[in-house]
Amino acid sequence: MKFKVAQEDLAQSLQLVQRAVSPRSPLPVLQGILIETTSDGLALSATDQEIGIRVLCPATVAEEGALVLPSRLGDIVRKIPFGEISFEADAAGNTMDITWERSRFTINGFPAQEFPPLPEPAQAPAYTIAKSELRRMVRQTAFAVSHDDSRPVFTGVLFVFEGERVKFVATDGFRLAVSEGDLVDRQGDIEGEVIVPGRGVSEVSRVLGEEGDGQVKVSVSGNRVFFEGARERVVCRLIEGQFPPFNQVIPKQFVTKLTCRTRDLLDACERASLIARDVGQAVKLEINGSTLVLSASAPELGTVREEVAIESQGDTLEIAFNPRYLIEGLRNIDSEKMTYEFTGPLSPSCMRPADPEEADSFICVVLPMRLA
Length: 372
Description:
Elements: E1 2-6, H1 7-17, E2 32-38, E3 41-47, E4 51-58, E5 60-63, E6 66-70, H2 73-79, E7 84-90, E8 95-100, E9 103-108, E10 110-111, E11 126-130, H3 131-142, E12 156-162, E13 165-171, E14 175-182, E15 185-187, E16 192-197, H4 198-209, E17 215-221, E18 224-228, E19 232-237, E20 256-261, H5 262-273, E21 283-288, E22 291-298, E23 302-309, E24 311-314, E25 317-321, H6 323-331, E26 337-342, E27 349-353, E28 362-366
Antiparallel strand pairs: 1-5, 1-7, 2-3, 2-6, 3-4, 4-19, 6-10, 7-8, 8-9, 11-15, 11-17, 12-13, 12-16, 13-14, 14-28, 17-18, 18-19, 20-24, 20-26, 21-22, 21-25, 22-23, 26-27, 27-28
């Protein structure tokens, strides 16, 4: 195995694939990255058996081959100056010589045969989504994923395929986030639902969605979901179980509704959270006519009172929330103005963009706290 590769290309590819390395795996080979030569250069692969990432990297190949090298290779390559790097493997000893200018590394590796092969996507129904849409939908739902492993389905993001549209849904039991977007293309019948691990969804966004305005092909085969870009592929094991009927949680009617500038309410919540920053502390909202008053107090810090200009409908209302839940929801409303609907002081509330054309693109349901 012998090849030459540009430092910047290899460093970028290693940074992406390293995200699937399992640093504490009992199998030493899973702590490494499989490097294989291809007709177009290199294929780099890593997996922790739950998530797998494969990235293609341009290179000039003199001799074909494959070898697993420690993930620390990424640290080494990042310290090498820009320019061309030469790699040559000693197949008999499973070592790789790395040379550039007057410097040389010799790295010990593992035989490629010991590396578990990544699952390949079958000929299954698939859809294509724009990277920009994928980034938005992941951002608007990943924050609501639960980290409580006792409820596995809540640790994932529900994908709901509906004709030419797809929904991402996440909840931790205290708030619910729903993001809806358009498909670019669809191949076959893909109606239905799957639950993708929250970590997997975040890695997909980082690996496939960080740059450019390309497209991502998504397919489901068996108990795995595949995400494929122009030179990257991410495969995730699906979460088994039944996601709760989220549509039943979204309020259909309201007793109080406000409309305001998204930035105004977000800024006020962030300032109020500086006082209500400890666990269990709440920000109180008082809605009365054209004014929303936010207030919070903490014995060791003091008090805060903020006023926000609003348009309101319905009853006056006093209600309290965990400020973090409000802030994370508001940060994901991309429109200039938003609406916030309330069904009572102890019942679910629902925020969304105010523009009717964008109202279904993002919904965040938040449960209130009991007023002291």
